[in-house]
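User: two proteins, same treatment. go.

Assistant:
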Amino acid sequence: MFQRLITLILHGRWPILLGLILTTLLMGQTMMELTIDPSTEPLFIKRSPEYQAYKEFNEKFGSDYMIAVAMETPDLFSDPYLQDLKELTDAISEYPQVERVMSLSNVLDIRHRFFGVRVVPALKDYYKGDDKAVELKEVILGNELYRNNFVSADGRIANILIYLKPSGSDRKSGGKFMKRLQGLLEKYERNEMKFYIAGAPVEQYRFIQYIRKDQFIFVPVITLLLIIATWVIYRNFSCVILAMSIVFMTLIWTMGAIVLFGQELNLVTSLLAPVIMIVAIVNSIHLMNLFFEIRFHHKSLRQAVVLTMTELGAPCFLTHFTTILGFLSLALNPVPAIQGFGVFAALGTLFSYVIEILLTPILMPILPYRQERNAKVENFFNKFLVEYLEKLEFRWKWWIIAAGGLVLILSLAGIRKLHVDTSLIKQMKPDSPLAVATRFIDNHLTGVYVLGFVLRKKDGSEFMDYESLIKIDQLKEFLESQPEIVKVNSLTTFIKKINEARGDEDSDFVIPNDEDKLRKYFNGLRESEDPGLWKMIAPDFRMLRLEARMKAVGTQEGALLEEKIKAYMDRTFLDDFEYHFTGNVVLLGKMAKGLVRYQMRGFVAAFAAILLLISIMFRSIRVGLLAAVPNILPILAIYGFMGFVGIDLSSPTAMISSIVLGMVVDASIHFLHRFRIEFHKRHHYIQALHHTFRNVGQSLVVSTLILCIGFASSIFASFKPTIYLGLLTSLTIFFALICTLVILPVCLVMIKPFGKGKIVRRPLSRSN
């Protein structure tokens, strides 16, 4: 079949080449429209009840699309800094992207008036000149509405909360705003006054910058590495042209397909470019090596091309297909970002196979006529190989099996130590500006993450009775006792503040046990125009919300906190209230809980499919197991290594198993394919191993090193999981090569999957 296909391609090589070039140009034009989605939305499981509750929460109380700007000063309560705070607040309010800005300069306070209370700006008297900054400090820091919300407990740091209008698809507007805001803050910044800026809009802006930076780094670096590696191996530009043509066509087609399917790059699919480039080059190495071997013995260029493509047609198809299955296993994961990566990585692998089959026979004639053999190197290799095979057959096989068993035991022990963490801040380098700003705000103010609680009464009544409000306030106190939570904003604080304003003593900062008073307070609240209030309770007073400001803890710590809070609320609220958690923390925690389960399900499905496919090709279940099972060990070993050294399992690192599964099996497929040919010639396992090593050993080593070098280039990435993904994938692939060259031969000698060999051993021949 492959012989007829290659012959047909050679007959129509010019139309096919023109078609490939035109398709690449069209896809390249489409690729220019590729955009980036920096939000966390692709990480959320859309079918989950938690996501539906989150959407309902946003519709009811509005989105917390907020930026926190921490203004650090020696002492905020001095005239110059309070004036700067007012000027900044007013200036930011003028930006068209801003819905509202809240800081001490404009926040409202609840104060006493005759027969009731009044709501006025907290610093109204100061800006009128009636109060002094020093006198103001004690009053402000003693107000629970402001402390840790708008000013730090020590009075040095102001917090400016900027609520943005929904930007929709206009992300350029958000980028322009972030640049203008940074420029404004730089004008005010001086030695004694510094600014720290964090929040979801900042994360998104930074993520876009980092993703673009990584793309501009990865593609050129990997291109350079692949060119250098190909040149060092073959010392010929025609080999470089053939290999890199396949790489660039595959990359352009894949990126163009993302646009055609109406998708964007996100925090996970941004990893596609390096993966696709590396996958696309591997089989070209095997093809070029075999071509040089065949060309050395055939004067007919056309015959050499046809024989090369025919002999490697089946194994190349199988290696591509197993890689596609590995990627498609990610499509079983319900997280949209991971699904998208799996689907487009599989599509890119399919593109690479199509391009390889069509383009390689056309460009192969430009390769050198002959490749001279280095007799000195070959003699050394043969000498080393003979000694290795002698020891393998008689002495080393049990040591190798024992070593493999020890690695397996240690791997399983390390896997039990793995921690799951999908925190976006923790995925960044610790010294990045966003990570530094987030830690600063977490430590001195409220924290930038929100854990929301929405409560309803089971009987549908209003939250206006003393018993319900006391329970809510006790929940607030319980939440604030948790080390992960810095501040909780609750309606009960408003009620206490109203009661205090109507009384004369500090002890009046309580919820009054008086139904008439509470009803009057709530009637007064109905007339309030304070947007902060309506984020705490629905206008009909039948749905109440608490907002817990959390530190940027990991998702596993967040999930444990959620379980602790749930246990408390089940004991306290379950009889009379319905409740649910909302916010990004909850959704990321939900994803983290199922991450390992989802990945294991997809991995098992892909492994079973690959095992079946190899078994069908070699017509033997035992051969299928030989190709697949020894390559499970490197995957288990790398996860065990992560557990021992404390590398968290995140969205990217969880994909290592599916990414490398198809790739590591490739080496075994090429090895077994050649071994079967050699064994049918000689019917002797050691002799067949000798010739298999000689004929495909170099290709396996070279292609593996290229894979390892390509993935290791992730060291230049901006996100730690991306760095870990590349380095650990590189290490896994290298370990898989060792397993293929060491453990697989032992299995072949001991299991004898191709039948019994000759009992009398022939001398090892140095010829083909």
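Protein 2:
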Amino acid sequence: MIKRPDIKLLNHWVYEAHTASRDERSERWRDAELYDGDQWSQEDWDAAQNAGVTPLTINRVFPVINLLRGHQILNRYNIIAKGRTQKDATVSEVMSEGIKFVMDQSDGQFLLSECFQDQIVPGFGCAFVGQNPDPREERIMLDRRPWTEMYWDPFGGPWLDAKRCRYVFHSPWLNLEDLQAQFPAKAKEIEAAYGEMSGTMFGNAWGQDEDEADEIEDEHLSSLAPSGWARVSPSKRVRPVEMWYPVHETATFLIPPDGKVFELTDDADPRELYQIIQAYQPGSIEKVTAMVRKMRVTTFLGELVLQDMPSPCPHDLYPFVPFIGYLDRFGYPYGVPRQVRGQNEEVNKRRSMALAHLQKRRIMIEQTAIPADSSAQTIYEEANKLDGMMVLNDTGLNKIKLDEQLNLSQAQAELLHMAEAEIQEISGANDERLGQNSRVMSGNAIDKRVQRSETVTASVFDNLRRSTTILGRLVCLEIQGNWRGEKVLRITDSVTKADRYVTLNQRVQTGQGVAVLNDVTQGKYDITVSEAPHTDTVREQSANLLMETIKKSPPEVIPQLVLLWFEISNLPNKDQIMAKIRPLFGEGPGDEDKSPEEIKQEMIQRIEAEQAKKQAQEQHDTRLREAEAAKVEADVAKVMAEIQEILARTKTRGVEAGAKALDAETRHEQGKIGAFKSGVETALKVQGARGAPAPVAPEMSPSAELRQDRDWRQTYR
């Protein structure tokens, strides 16, 4: 086992993370200011006013960010769990609904939207997946972590991979009383530590390393001097550190043949281990001991350690989900405003300058043209008024020159348009995607420009998909570790909006003992993310495509497609309409409430019934063909017996009478044989038409004895 970090190393990690991220956090704060409308730095603002230019604020970043946010809101992702084995696949739908339930309990979709805004504005957002300490709420909790409170190993990267990132910590400002309530056993020590930190330089442990984000946040939140660990104020605020880090430990695992892994821990329930062993054949479970990463969490305030314990999560991953816009060459995140910051500032400055050129005019006047009771400033102010009046000396009009700056204003406007076009090109928010008037008239050209815009922002949404996948994986692991007993979920169908209830971990008594139905505590699942568009345009396109499919479909599938068309359409009162047309298509009033698993079982039963019916018909046809073949063989045997009997009688007759009788009898029998052959051939043709194998007809030639009698008769004559 590797030695755990002590408090000095933990504080060194804090200092390292603050120092490494100081500059890039200041840049992130500036990006957030652009979105909020703070377009001018104080230096540029003062310079513009001193030059006689009124600063204007035109926020071109705001619509770009809102376009991306709107696309994410209208096209939310669905998190789907898929089982890795056939057994897990039967519970995967229940796991998917469990993830959706946890998301709904924590307002997960709104939380994702907030994290996505952090992803595209400052460049980094963060969500937390853990356990809720309040027993009155759902045990599994999702929460947002502001980017200003999150730090990580600068050598590990912001994706917070436990295999590469040495540490991640959350450092929020808290009221002193709240921290004492979290750690009541350390309340007096926390109070003493606050007293020491607030009265000494230790209270500003990393004050010289604070970035612009910390300084401005402190100024706006409390208007107090910032400090590293504590603030001196009536509210008594402190800033503890919740440090998460992995350590290497030796662990023992049981690995059954289906690939599942069960860890043997000191506090493992013997009954669960017994059930695991009984579920597999003797000798099929492999016992493995290996060195693995184990997650730990330490909470401390300065030199005071408040808590040091293994991770409360049922996994050894960081419980944080990063949302990243872009990464620079040093591996630091940044958002969309970073690339258009210069162009946006240029738009404001050139627009302000163009307006100043339209409002102001340059005046050149000789001193002799100014009256004695006036001044050059008065003449300048009157010349720049809309209704100004200048009083000059005699012939003074010939000694004054007013220089209009309209041409300069036009030049500023042209450069302004160029800067705006660059913002659209870089951000992907062109006129076509914003829904504004476009110079392109062709519908195909408009679609291509919209597609190009989506291509520019594809990497942002690809990162969002990655973050959503990480979120789903963590929620899935939390469900398996915390939902141990029976739990009833209400599942709402995304298409029909019908509700049904499913019981998780349901224990039922069977002939072989107690069985667990919908067991979500076991199994392995792969998390996939699918896009679920909700816009009217997408739904309308889907409905039109389905209608074209209905027109080309065979009659037997049209009822199901028509019902599906009604379900995805936007018709008013469609629920009442569907309730009336379902009986016409042979569906009962409760069919729409059936789960996909029930529908699947019904389809399997129908297919099996059809296959059994087909097999029974084939067996019946086979028996008929066998009976017909047996009848033909019996008829042939009967004719051959009659021929043998005739030959025997012929030998006992006289030569002459025998010859005559034989001649007549032979002709008669040959006629019967010919008729029989015709009947047999006809029967064989009928069997061939039915598809039965044609039996081989026996050769109906005269026997050897008949030929000997014929030869004797010729000799006698």
